[in-house]
Amino acid sequence: MAYAPPALRRRSRRRRILVIFLILATLAGVIALAVRYRTDRRVAVDYLDAAKLIADDEQLLSAGLGEVFIGVGDLERQEILDRVEELASTSADVRDALAELETTAAVAEAHGFLTVAVGAWDDAFATMGDAIVEVLDGPDVQTGDAALRAAFDLLRIGDRAFFGFTEAVARIEADVMPPEYPAVAFAGGDRSALYDSVAIASRLRNIVKLEGDHDVSIIVTIDPEPLVQEGSIPIVPNAEQFIVNLVVSNEGNLLENRITVSLEGDPQSADVEMIDLQQLVPSLEAGSSTTVTFDVSDLVVPGELYELRARAIIPEDETPDNNSWSLVLVRNAE
To answer: What would you measure as the largest C-alpha separation in the chain, in angstroms?
Structure first.
């Protein structure tokens, strides 16, 4: 009987061990590839589902912006600007949501197109409000038209990029099964006539009520109310408190910021200190009012003749006659 030499038997064992290691490594590689495939597929599916929500949001934004320009003849200036600002805020949120999505190689091309589309649309919204203001208030017609045209051009870039996104999605492997996306188009297709910058700018300029109107007014009351006798100076009863209330109203069609409300009391006697008070109204929407209160209980000297003067001040007031008030009075000494 013949026996294999010890060295030969050792080499044979090493080969078997090597083969086992190779098999195990191959199995590990196959398992890793399978796990990675499943992970990439899950990421791709999640991405495409999230992209569907983003596309739905953009479709709503498209409809909202279209309503603004269709309704130019019926909307007030501030309402147009407010609605555009609200749409711009939503657009920025959509852009942020897209930036947070996880991607994989399978959706890289589609993600690139969608990023360009959402970015261009958001850039358009970011400049739209300023473009409309330039059309309405700018001294140069061509500058306003160009600003609006630039914003509309960004919308069209986004439209073309989104079409590229849908084409790229169609090329993704069939087993991913992407959802059905809406045909988002802000300024293309049947909307192209709506986004004619020259026509829109002309419509904006021809609507009188869109012209900016800065106007604030005040109504002043005193507590306690002065007692007025015919032919005499109003006398304020000597109560514990002496309050001057100013109702400040925004009579214009623009949001007013930083309205300075002042109250002065000019005494007849040089020995009595003058009253000089101010309060700031941070902002006041068009058509709204707020009350500003001055407590002068410890400032108005009883028995002294004063001229009280109140004003609400903004940089450009189209009707300054209604934002000031004055009254000569005496606080009863008894």
So the answer is: 149
What is the C-alpha separation between 71 and 60, in angstroms, rounded? 16
Q: List, for residues 52-90, the tens digit of each pLDDT value.
A: 999 999 999 999 999 998 888 777 788 888 999 999 999
How far apart CA 255 and CA 213 sit, in angstroms, is 10
pTM for the complete prediction? 0.59
Contact 305, 327 (CB under 8 A): no
Beta strand 243-250 with 305-313: parallel, antiparallel or unpaired?
A: unpaired
- Distance CA(209)–CA(201), nearest Å, equals 15
What is the rounded distance in angstroms from the CA atom of residue 273 to the CA atom of residue 242?
A: 17
Which pLDDT band, with edges at 50, 70 and 90, does 14 fall under?
low
Nearest-angstrom CA–CA distance, 275 and 297: 11
Q: Residue 144: which residues within 8 A CB-CB, separation 6 or more?
A: 131, 134, 135, 136, 138, 201
- Surface-to-core class of residue 214, CB atoms within 10 Å of its CB (0-12 exposed, 13-18 middle, 19+ buried): middle
Tell whether the model's pLDDT for residue 317 goes beyond 70. Answer: yes
3-state helix, strand, coil in the chain (%, to 5): 50, 20, 30
- Give 37 or 323, the one with higher predicted confidence: 323
Q: For residue 309, which phi and psi values (nearest 5 degrees)?
A: -130, 130
Which domains are present in the chain?
A: 6-210 (no CATH), 216-331 (2.60.40.10)
Altogether, the residues listed in the chain come to a count of: 334
CA gyration radius, the chain: 36
Tell me the C-alpha distance between 277 and 256, whole Å. Answer: 21
